[in-house]
Specification:
Elements: E1 2-9, H1 13-23, E2 28-33, H2 47-50, E3 53-60, E4 63-69, H3 75-78, E5 87-92, H4 96-107, E6 111-119, E7 122-129, E8 135-139, H5 142-153
Parallel strand pairs: 1-4, 5-8
Antiparallel strand pairs: 1-5, 2-3, 3-4, 6-7, 7-8
């Protein structure tokens, strides 16, 4: 299991990755854009969102941070991005039962943004805001997703 600081940005994650990877002397940088995934023909993304970062990670000094862009089309679910609410806690666990338990426990008194479900990027993904206003992201296999999409692009 890993708990990772996850940073959201408003369309400039590509520049943030470049800056942080140099500033932190990253040992590994992984990134996937929304256009790297098959699009749902019933809900295609607008052209301006396809080049945004869907998921990325920077490894440095034995640690890791993950980053992504918040799509303008998702802001009705996530709310507007302002400095201070762009940091969330990402829990990456292969054990789905533990992930479900944590999700259930942390959602008490808060609200669910996305219920735990199978997604193209994860076999078990969800997001919630706890009763203290902290945003949590749950993902059963984030690293596998990044590695798979990156290797398919090469």
């Amino acid at each position: 299991m890993s708990v990772i600081a996850y940073l959201n940005f408003d369309g400039n994650t590509e520049q943030v990755i470049a800056f942080y990877s140099e500033a932190l002397n990253s040992s590994e940088v992984k990134k996937v854009k929304f256009k790297d995934l098959p699009q749902d023909p019933n809900y295609p993304l607008p052209e301006n969102e396809l080049n945004m970062i869907m998921e990325s990670s920077l490894e440095f000094a034995g640690g890791k941070i993950m980053l992504s862009d918040i799509l303008p089309s998702m802001k009705k679910l996530t709310g507007e991005l302002v400095m201070g609410n762009n940091i969330l806690i990402s829990i990456v666990i292969d054990d789905k039962q533990t992930l479900e338990d944590y999700f259930s426990n942390l959602s008490v008194g808060g609200y669910v943004i996305m219920p735990l479900s199978d997604m193209p990027w994860s076999s078990c993904f969800g997001m919630l805001v706890d009763k203290f206003g902290v945003v949590w992201k749950f993902n059963s296999d984030a690293e596998k997703f990044l590695d798979r999409v990156i290797s398919n692009k090469q």
